[in-house]
Amino acid sequence: ARAALDPATGALLRAVLLPGRDHPRPRLFLTAHHLAVDSVSWRVLLADLEHAYRRAAAGQEPRPEPEQTAFADWARSLAEQ
Q1: Of all helices (H) and strands (E), which one includes residue 17?
Q2: What pLDDT, in 10s, does the model give residues 7-19?
Q3: Which domains are assigned to the chain?
């Protein structure tokens, strides 16, 4: 899947749902071009996906909760890394 990522064609993210062999549930495999998702973005994306999954599993609409961060807080967090 990684070889198929090509910014020139717009292919920046791939997702594959793998059936479970040694475990009862399928696994979601994501790969993204570094131009689309950086290390900080991965954490946000995965947290949003987990939240959506848990809501869907509970029978609720799987929509992410909006997060709001003040620019000053974001800049301070970035500087601390």
Answers
A1: strand 13-18
A2: 888 888 888 888 8
A3: 2-80 (3.30.559.10)
